Amino acid sequence: MPLGGYKGSGLAMLVEILCAVMGGGAMATDVGGIRTRGRAMHTSQMYMAIDVARFMPAEQFTARVEALVGIIKATPPAPGYDEVLVAGDPEWRTEAERLKNGIPLAEGNWETLCQTAAQVNVRPPALQ
Hints:
4 helices; about 45% helix; extended; mainly alpha; about 0% strand
């Protein structure tokens, strides 16, 4: 799906430069992927650390990010959706749910885990 017209393509190009060009990895169509049968995926990674305090006090940065998130979340949701989410929202909700109610396991997985634990002399935790 297209993302953001010319600005989206510029953002994609920036990510490609940071990850593939600077990382020395495969670029553009040479990456391959899980949907390209018979072709290995060759991805590159890029990690960046930014010292926010060099730009502004950390508290000010945090307050500005929180204000931006508030603006984004106050945006009317697209038709068919109940709310606007930001990065991390689904994961934080899942974490809270699982801390409260545990991690769901597909049927049969607990038994398989217990059998594997017995093979290596590890006692599984009690179910709650």
